[in-house]
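Entry
Fold in token form

___
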Amino acid sequence: MDLGIAGKWALVCGASKGLGLGCAQALVREGVHVLIVARGAAVLEAAAAGLLADPARPASATVTAVAADITTAEGRAAVFAVRKEFDIIVTNAGGPPPGDFRNWDREDWIKAVDANMITPIELIKASVDGMAERGFGRIVNITSSSVKAPIDVLGLSNGARSGLTGFVAGVARTSKLASSNVTINNLLPGVFDTDRIRNMAKGTAEKTGQAVDAILEARRAAVPAKRLGTPAEFGAMCAFLCSQHASYVTGQNVLMDGGAYPGTY
């Protein structure tokens, strides 16, 4: 299927690896010019080189890398100094650490909200009016399946991402945006084969004495699909939400979890 977005410009955050990189790869393969941003310069440059070397990338699609912390005003300024207007924005920031809410102070909460709620809102604010004027815009926020089914040890993430979800539910449905072919949706990953899941497994192993492989296998077994998701299939869903064909989808929470969520709605 031709997604109809070749030649568009996309900003993909947290794109040096994992789900962000999966989204960047899917968009590049559709002929989209992609600006990828992440904090680690070396890993980011390697990701950019990999995208450029992808045999499925049309020759016309360009890749630009900006090493910056998108969760800061300075980082966002660095990105918009390279390019001011984007047709597609994929917001993504590393999730807050797990823990017991009794041990979190105000600074922990502010940091989580700043990265996982305020940053996407700032990116939306900086881009949607221009998108509306041009008659096309796609924003996809990578959030978490915990928005649908909260995870007790991920209270920081539950709170911050739920706040973003509530904000998007309102702003995506404003007539100025929805009638101007500007959509805003959230993409909710369950358990995917990423560094974050493996690092969490290592943390559990250190506390319990279990083997990391055994912990990961238990995670796989708990998913009806009996496997972890892949960044490539996550990226494919992201690319569809960014496509011309998804113009009637806005304000939605798209859950990708291999069937793990047990609810009907």
